[in-house]
Amino acid sequence: MQSYYTLMASLPQLPREFDDGPIPISAATLRHRVSMLDHHDRQTVQQVSDFFRWDRQPRDRSDAEIRATHRRLVAEIRHPLVALLVHHRFEMRMLVAALRCQRGGLPPPEFPELPLAVWIQRHWDEPCFRLNDRFRWLPRFCQAIEDHQPRRAQWHLFTELWNHWSRWNDQYTFSFESVVLYLARWEILHRWASQNEQCGRQRFNDLVDDILQTGGVNC
Description:
Layout: H1 2-10, H2 27-34, H3 39-55, H4 63-76, H5 80-103, H6 115-122, H7 138-146, H8 150-169, H9 176-214
Helix pairs in contact: 3-9, 7-8, 8-9
């Protein structure tokens, strides 16, 4: 318990919202602080990190690979909160993949063996798969997609993850679960900040292209 208290006390407080200001701690510093954990806890943290790294990869994975990854994680993960976190993130991933296929006129993906997959297939032809009441963020996400605002859609997705995991975090104090949820929310901060950086580079490149096309600017 002392190691968790010392570790959590050494970590700067995360912002109230994931899009509110800079990341308060670098990845390198965070890794160094997490090294304070014992071997067993570090292994569990590594499972979380590996899952998020896999989840960041391009979406052109086969359905079979996604199902296999889900089965492996279910078999390997022993910590209840980590299992719950991975399950929640998988459900979000399934919903986004299903909406993408539905909009593209494609058949339902072959999802992992989860009750949500059965529901989606049963209500495939209905708006938001009749899940508006269960997933309150879903109508806003769908509307952003309809309005061709993918960044706004991503904001709604990250908001749901951030708020959900922050509510979980309120149940713990200076525990290993606090460490896991800190890392999970830091991942959202990192992904959103990385998107901002990419968008900034794209805007700069677009400006350069405009200048080249018009032959320069007046100084």
